[in-house]
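Give me structure tokens for this 80-residue protein.
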Amino acid sequence: LQLCPELAPYPHRLAAVTSFAYNVGLGAFKASTLRRKCRARQWKAAAAEFHKWNKAGGRPMRGLTIRRGLECKTFDAEGW
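Here you go.
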């Protein structure tokens, strides 16, 4: 929450970003466009950023693609 206080009123977005940051690391999250979009409250653009983080060793990984899709869906959920 310290890195992205704009997420405080949105528990679903906070949950998605927490999962993401735990998986990629805080250093990567701090430098990410995802964080910049969240800080600017550009929610749709931020949601699209999750899908860019599906690679390991430069190759798309099925498990990461699924994980990022679920994080994006949670982030973009309107009904929370």
